[in-house]
Amino acid sequence: MSEIARLILLLFLAGAALTAIGGVAVWFMDEERRIRRSLTKVLNVTPEATVHAHGRGVGFAFSRSSLAVTWDQGAWCLVYRLSELVGAEVLVDGEVVGRAHRGEARRAIDRIPVGAAEVGLRLLFDDPAHPDFEITLWSDKLEARRGVASPALALQEANRWLARTESILRRQGAPATPAAPAVAAQPAPPPAPEAQSEPESEPDEMVEDFEDSNRVF
Question: What is the pTM for the complete model shown?
Answer without folding.
Answer: 0.65
